[in-house]
Each structure stands twice: as structure tokens, then as C-alpha cells.
Write a structure and sequence with these properties.
Belongs to the zinc-containing alcohol dehydrogenase family. This is alcohol dehydrogenase (NADP(+)). Keywords: Metal-binding, Oxidoreductase, Zinc. Pfam families: ADH_N, ADH_zinc_N. One of its GO terms (molecular function) is zinc ion binding. The chain is of the alpha/beta class and 344 residues long. The protein folds into two domains: 207 residues, Alpha-Beta Complex (Quinone Oxidoreductase, Chain A, domain 1), CATH 3.90.180; 130 residues, NAD(P)-binding Rossmann-like Domain (Rossmann fold). Helix content is 25%, strand content 27%. Strands 3, 4, 5, 8, 9, 16 and 17 form a seven-stranded mixed sheet that branches. Strands 12-11-10-13-14-15 form a six-stranded parallel sheet. α4 crosses α5. The longest helix has 14 residues. The two termini are 19 Å apart.
């Protein structure tokens, strides 16, 4: 086994630095020196839910440099800059995997942490560490021009909003509304605008109106203002809902125009839907999660070509507890990224 250093929760939900074991490289593996790892709300939730009976190493959106390759690796060489997201393996055989949608693998994809390795059955440990070993098929070449620190959150937040934007043919002439301006929402705005659409932000208060304009939105609606919501009825072709807490989606369905779609991305629990809210206007309700390999590679290249990257605040990994506390308080605009070099 290989050893590296990382931030881990063992007997409690608190993180501490310590030694981690990584597998020796299999023929199709690469070893990645993790330089930057994004901090996601799901990391915070995983720590809150941690039962203390196992080792938890969060982190599923990171960039780094290849330091070693397996005997059969053809796509990467030592020194290549790469990115890794929240999926590190899949069955490769089911209908979804064959369609390039490994994120919907019928056997469930192997997650970057908290997943079950498909070869030895061990629990995967995430990117809050200085090294990660991954199959070459689930690593992505980082295009030139993408800053590695800013690019890290593209591997989760970026691909999560990219998939529905592409699936719903967002482009010139399409009217997009984004509900919630956080880690997902601000990237949804940037990507929609870069694809040629017009974007409007919907938020509970006007606090982020200036940010919305800076990000490229040409409209802003306060969701608690009934007059504004009424005036915006049936104004959008696509509504991207990034709210992570349970909420009523009926007000947002009313904003969807004829044959339009509400895509719920932030909350994956049970929601109540009145069929009449879909019936009037032939509206559609959809969702998405992460992305397959072709879509992820496409997203990275698009971001490099169009200059789209998240707004990030980079902190040394030793400040991970501070970052988690601030994330819990929504005190970030719009994504924390940990610099892992202090683990050397």
C-alpha cells in the first residue's frame, strides 16, 4: 500500500490530519498529487451524518498533477495536469454506462469517497489528501488556460449544472432562470450566459442583485415579492432550481413558459407536485446529477474556451474547519477551495 497525508474523521465528525493508505497502482491507474480540492455542501452533510464507526475523508472535486502511471495507462503521462470529480468508477456494461452516462450506472457509480471499490471492496477515501489513486478513465486532462484552483469546483458544481443546461438545449434565444445564487447557482448563470442564453436570478432577497449582474444575469427577481413573481409568470423556457433545502416548487413552476422545464438540482428528497401545475402549459419537471465522462470532458473544454470558472476563495487545507463553519453559515461567494500543499 502507498501512504499519503489527509484530513480525516475517524471517531467523530471532526477532521484531523493523519496518514492515509492508497492502493498500489493497478495497470489502468494513475496517481495524482492533489493540489486543490473544492469544498461542497455534500462534504458538510457527510461529516454531519458520520457515525464514527469508519474513516471518512471528504472531497470529490479536485485538480492536481500525475505523479505515476500504471503499466497499461495510455491517456496520461507523469507531469500532466488533471481533474477528478465525484465518480471514480462504474460497471461499464449497463445501458447508461454504454451511453456515456456513468453517473446513472445501474449498479450505482463508485463515488470518490464513501464508495465501494469495485475490485477489492474497500471504502473509497476522498480528495482532502495529498494523493489520490484513480482509474485513468475517470480522470480528465485539465485544458490549458484553466486555473487549477478555480477549476476544481467544476468537477462537481460545474458538471451538475452543465448536464441539464446541455440536455435542455440551452443556447441563444433561450430564457433561463436560476433559483438560488450559491455554489451551483452562480455557475448555472455563468454557463447559461456563455452558451448564449439570457439569465435571470431568483433569490429570497435583493442582497445578491449586484452579484447577479456581475455574473452576467440581465434580470433579478425577489421570490418573496409576490408582485415580482406574478409579473414573471410563464417568462422562462428553463428554470434551474438549486435550492438545497426542502421547499415548495409550485411558485417556480408558474414561472415556466409553454413546453418549458423546471430542473430541480439542489434538493433530492421528496417533493409534492400538483399535476395541474404541469398540465397548464405542458410543463416538464426534471432533475440531473453529476455527469458522464463525455459530458464532463466537454464541460471542461467549454469552460477553458469561454473563460468560465467558479468564483472561489482559496484557503490552506489547515483551515478546513473554518471553511466548513463558514460554509454552514452560507458565508462564501461562491465556493471554497482548499490548497493541499500544506500537507507536504
Amino acid at each position: 500500500m502507498r501512504t499519503t497525508t489527509g484530513w480525516q474523521a475517524t471517531g467523530s465528525s471532526e477532521l484531523s490530519a493523519g496518514l492515509l493508505e492508497r492502493r498500489e497502482l493497478r495497470p489502468d491507474d494513475i496517481a495524482v498529487r492533489v493540489d486543490y480540492c473544492g469544498l461542497c455542501h455534500s462534504d458538510l452533510q457527510a461529516l454531519r451524518d458520520h457515525d464514527g464507526h469508519s474513516r471518512l475523508v471528504p472531497g470529490h472535486e479536485f485538480t492536481g498533477v500525475v505523479t505515476e502511471v500504471g503499466l497499461e495507462v495510455a491517456a496520461f503521462s507523469v507531469g500532466d495536469s488533471v481533474a477528478v470529480g465525484n465518480i471514480v468508477d462504474s460497471c461499464g456494461q449497463c445501458r447508461m454506462c454504454r451511453a456515456g452516462q456513468e453517473n446513472f450506472c445501474h449498479e450505482f457509480p463508485t463515488l470518490t469517497y464513501g464508495g465501494k471499490d469495485r475490485v477489492d471492496g474497500s471504502t473509497t477515501l476522498g480528495g482532502f489528501s495529498r494523493e489520490y489513486v484513480v482509474r485513468e478513465d475517470f480522470a480528465y486532462r485539465l485544458p490549458e488556460g484553466l486555473d487549477p484552483a478555480a477549476a476544481a469546483p467544476l468537477m462537481c458544481a460545474g458538471i451538475t449544472v452543465w448536464e441539464p443546461l446541455r440536455a435542455l438545449d440551452v443556447g441563444p434565444g433561450v430564457r433561463v432562470a436560476v433559483v438560488g445564487l450559491g455554489g451551483l447557482g452562480h455557475l448555472a448563470v455563468k454557463l447559461a450566459v456563455a452558451l448564449g442564453a439570457t439569465a435571470t436570478v431568483i433569490s429570497r432577497s435583493s442582497d445578491k442583485a449586484d452579484d447577479a449582474g456581475r455574473l452576467g444575469a440581465d434580470g433579478f427577481i425577489v421570490s418573496t415579492d409576490s408582485a415580482q413573481m406574478t409579473a414573471a409568470r410563464e417568462s422562462f423556457d428553463v428554470v434551474i432550481d438549486t435550492v438545497s433545502a426542502p421547499h415548495d416548487i409550485a411558485p417556480y413552476l408558474k414561472l415556466v413558459g409553454l413546453d418549458g422545464t423546471l430542473s430541480v438540482l439542489g434538493y433530492l428528497g421528496a417533493l409534492t407536485v400538483e399535476v395541474a401545475d404541469l398540465l397548464i402549459g405542458r410543463k416538464k419537471l426534471s432533475s440531473a446529477g453529476s455527469g458522464g465522462r463525455p459530458s464532463t470532458a466537454e464541460m471542461l473544454q467549454f469552460c477553458a474556451d469561454s473563460g468560465v470558472v467558479p468564483d472561489v476563495e482559496v484557503l490552506p487545507s489547515s483551515q478546513v474547519d473554518t471553511a466548513l463553519e463558514r460554509l454552514a453559515a452560507n458565508d462564501v461567494r461562491y465556493r471554497f477551495v482548499l490548497d493541499m500543499s500544506d500537507l507536504d
